[in-house]
Amino acid sequence: MSALLDQELQVSPRETLWIADENSKALLQQGFTFAGDLLSNRWDIAKLAEDKAGRSFFSDFHFEELGRKYRRIVYTVSKEKALVHHIVNRAAEFLGEGGELVLVGGKQGASKPTRPRPHSASAAQNNCRNTGQNTQAPMHCRTAAAKRSMT
Question: Which H or E run contains 57?
Fold first, then answer.
């Protein structure tokens, strides 16, 4: 998982938000640097990222404090289904037009796979897509003008 996350973050533009969990610690301890912003609900992760990320935030995923929109949000899907729903539902608010939500994870460590549900025909044209042949490949979801929500 760490290698897949590392690969995804390396190709991310500077205007990327990385939503980091406890599984991100190993990557940060390896000396990894990230030009974008990091948001975590774990103090140790946010503190460790202070000199490794452009900006580091510690909160219970209160996105308003970030004060900007992103071209990409990279999120390792959590085991807690409510947390997954919260982050995916709020992501569209903090992605610029054409922005991308990248969901990293698989069935082994995460909740049941979920996708934003479009509320309009225009949003339905901006589907999520799997970037690889296996279930471990990241899921890329593009934003549309319509707000997306989870079922």
Answer: strand 53-58
Please report, in angstroms and rounded to a whole number, the separation of the first and last CA atoms in the chain: 26
Q: What is the pLDDT along the chain (151 residues), one digit of tens a residue?
A: 577 888 888 888 889 999 998 888 888 887 788 899 999 999 999 999 998 899 999 988 888 888 899 999 999 888 888 888 999 988 989 998 889 999 888 655 543 434 444 433 333 334 455 544 444 555 666 554 333 434 4
Q: What is the pTM of this model?
A: 0.72
Q: How far apart are CA 10 and CA 21, in angstroms?
A: 18
Length of the chain, in residues? 151
> Cβ atoms within 10 A of the Cβ of 79, count?
11
